[in-house]
Design brief:
Layout (H helix, E strand, L loop, with lengths): L12 E6 L10 E4 L11 E3 L5 E8 L7 E5 H14 L5 E2 L2 E5 L2 H6 L9 E6 L4 H5 L6 E5 L2 E2 L3 H9 L6 E8 L2 E8 L1 E2 L3
Antiparallel strand pairs: 1-2, 2-5, 3-4, 4-5, 6-13, 7-8, 8-9, 9-10, 9-11, 11-12
Length: 188
């Protein structure tokens, strides 16, 4: 960084799974106060034992002292995809989704405290359509993980192996049901 031959900074990881940063399409960052200066993006973020836990990527535009790193699990998966397939494969469900707002909970007749995302469109021929998902379904879990917002679902699906069959719990007409979906391949 800054033309120096090397540097070391010390900091704290203060968050995991950071999304909605506007850095990239699929976001799942570690948040750290470790200095990430011009020139050391791409360097390792280490734990106290010297294990790589992330790859330093970006700093926050809004203020100094906040940086973001890609978790090492993501880096390993991307590397394996590139070696095995020559490309990064991401899962695809084929739905348009939106937040479940308090106003929507009333119209769908579900409790105001209900978390989930609403399917507002389904791509023709998509895995979601083949599995029987419908516009207006509320997705509440994906493969056993709670879906609190659209970014959660987007990341869960993207990280799913293409061809895997995944249970998705939905609310339809106020009743909970589980649908099995075979995940397709995201084509960018």
């Amino acid at each position: 960084p800054y033309g120096l031959t090397g540097t070391l900074t010390v900091g704290v990881v203060s968050g995991k799974g950071r999304m909605d940063l506007g850095i990239t399409t699929f976001e799942n960052f570690l948040q750290t106060d470790t200095s990430i200066n011009p020139g050391n993006s791409g360097g390792p973020l280490l734990d106290l034992n010297g294990n790589i836990i992330g790859i330093n990527t970006a700093i926050a535009e809004l203020g100094a002292g906040v940086g973001f790193a890609i978790p090492v699990e993501t880096v390993v998966k991307v590397g394996e995809d590139l070696i095995d397939n020559g490309e990064v494969e991401r899962g695809w469900l084929g739905v348009g989704i939106q937040h479940l707002t308090p106003e929507m909970t009333e119209s769908f007749q579900v409790p105001r405290s209900q978390a989930g995302v609403v399917i507002n469109s389904i791509d023709e021929g998509a895995p979601a359509e083949k599995a029987g998902l419908k516009q207006g379904d509320i997705i509440i879990t994906y493969n056993g993980k709670e879906v609190a917002n659209p970014k959660h679902l987007q990341n869960y699906v993207a990280e799913t192996q293409v061809g895997a069959t995944v249970p998705i719990t939905i609310l339809r007409d106020g009743r909970e049901q589980t649908v099995e979906v075979e995940i397709g391949k995201y084509l960018s």
